[in-house]
Structures are given as C-alpha cells and as structure tokens.
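Reviewer 2 asked us to include a model.

Predict the structure of this chain.
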Amino acid sequence: MSMHHRIVVIGGGNAGLSVAARLRNAGQGDVAIIEPRTEHYYQPLWTLVGGGRAPRRESVRPQTQVMPQGVAWVKDSVSEIEPDERTVKLASGGEVGYDYLVVSPGLQLDWDRVPGMTEAVAGPQASSNYDFELAPKTWKLIKGMKRGTAVFTMPSGPIKCAGAPQKIAYLAADYWRQQGVLDDIRVVLVLPTPGMFGVEVFAKELDKVVERYGIEVRFNSEVTDIDPTAQSVTITDTSAQNSEQLDYDMLHAVPPQSAPDWIKQSPVAKPGDPNGYVDIDANTLQHVRWLEIFSLGDAGSSPNSKTGAAIRKQAPVVVENLLATMEHRPMNGRYEGYASCPLTTSRTTMLLAEFDYSMQPAPSIPVIDTTHERRDMWYLKRYGLPAMYWNLILKGRA
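Predicted model (structure tokens):
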C-alpha cells in the first residue's frame, strides 16, 4: 500500500491532533494523521485517578470522536522515516509519501531499563499512574495502606509531566492524614534532582509541602533495581555514589522514558542523543537538516518540560512556521519554552508552576498569584483543564 499526502502528521495524541486541527482551520485540505490506537487518552487525569479524585472513564474517548474533520486517518504504526525520499514506512509494510511532515509520536515508557520494574508493577504491592490500566490500582493500594513504608520514584532524564511522580505522593499523604494513619506510614520520595523543583519560588513552596507531610526526600537519587519478591528497592545516590536498600509495603514506580525506538534509529534523531529526540530548533521547532519537517510534543529535542501546556504553546508555532515554509515566507513563530506543571499538593489544593526556557516564573493568569497552593487552582486541574483539552485544544482553538 502506497499513498501520498501534502502534510503528514505522525501521532494522534495531543500534539498531532492539535496541529492537524489548526491546519484544517487554516484551510489545508490534504492532511493525514498516522495513528494506530482506537482510543485517545487525556493522560494528566491519571494522577487524579491514582489518587482517588477522578474516575478513569473521564480520561478516555474513542479516537473517532477527537479526529479532526476532513483529516485522512491512517490506522497504522510508523516503522521508519526516510527524509531524503520524503516517505514514512508503516508497520504493515506500506508507506506514505509527504511534502511536509510533522513528527509528534510522544514518548515510550522504558520499563525494562530498571531491573524488576516490569515485574513489580505486575505484582500486588506496586503500581504506576503512567499506565491507563494501572492507575486505579494505585488508588487501591493507597486506600489499603495503614502502616509501613511507601516509596514514590522518579527516574532521571526527561519524562512526561515531571511533576506527576510528586503529585501522587502528596495526594496519598493527604489521604493518609485524613484517615489518621500518616504517622504510621514512612513516605519516601526519590528524586533525581538536587531540589524539589527547577524554579526556586516553586521549590520553596514544595519544601513546605513535604515538611507538612513528613516526607523523606532522597535528592540526586533514583531507583536502580527493584526486587518484587522481597519488596525492596535499591536507591542510588548519584552525587555520593552510594546505594541503600529499602523495603516497601507500597511502591509507585515511574519508568524512564525516551523517544520511540524507530525515532532513535532514524536520520531525523539528534546525533549522539541517547534518548533519540527529533533534532529541531528550540524556537522554530523546524528540523535542523530537513526544513520540510517539524516536530513538537514529547519527542522533540527542544529542552522544555514535557507537558501538555508546552504543546499548547508549540502547536500554533509549528502551524505558523509550517505554513510560512509552504508559502516560501520567513518564519515568524517562536516558542520560548513555556511549560506548566499543575502540582496537586493536597486533595483540594494545587500549585500552578508556569515557567519557560529562562527557568523563571511565566504566569499566564492575570491577578491571581499562582506561586502558592490554591483551592481555585484545584478546580482548574480537576475540571477546567480537561474541559479545555477536549473542547478547545484538540479542536485547534486554544
């Protein structure tokens, strides 16, 4: 099977659908999306599912409901990009030719990079909100915890929503506080970073949160091995070059993440990048070698935090610059690294951390001070952002 489209978008997630919808709104008549999945997920809700604050069913809709009208949907997986030939090879053996290409396949979860992690989350005492099937299990474990040790992990390297590994720890600790059992539970949060957050004003606020719950934080550390039979983890301190064994009664594990393997092996990947991200200019989001290729979302090499909020700012830049390239005009669209991390700090409060490439606060809501925990920001996270996602972002209107 061979076909050709003027614009081909790889990936039917947030980034791919947002760009395709904007291109259709701009009058582009020949746009194709390559996406094998028949269900579309709003992944930011999985933290609340794992924390018992939202039903899982609200995070999923049929892909047919969110596919932009008039877009050709190629229900297949990509196996290879051949940029010199301007073709995309499909897992089924077919290929799709393109004049312009947008690469937005998201990240893959590398469970096997931590020995024992795959087996652990399949067992009775460990879970992960990074999987649609596992998120309800997280809540089951939190509810069943009355005493013992709970370990929450975060891997090194960029991951989807870097705040999520912390958020579930706070949701759990607040629940245990409400149930009167927090004093009997040792909560350990393993972070690869030297501080709670990369932006000082938000880090200071999170310092107060972990102190309030009595959470032990292991900085500059990550879990490097899990023994699911013994229910123990090996925590390695990368700054001190030493390790400790810690038994757990509950484990929330977050896997390392990287670009899909077929991107890593592709010419479009950034040379020498072990994570295999698409090699793009950090501001224009255009590929540095093949100017008819753009990339956004989690698989791009731009050094921003990998969040849905980043995609919301990237999508209009990609579309503006892609259209300019098609029309042989100068590119005026610039992405300055904006990202946002809605950090749930309790079961009713949230800290909205907004920042950009400068790693300084970049607030987008006038008047309201979002550098502190707020009850109204909780309602934004629980209801406002999902509504914006389904009704505006995926339709190219946000």
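The chain has ten helices and 21 strands. The mean pLDDT is 96. We have added this to the supplementary material.
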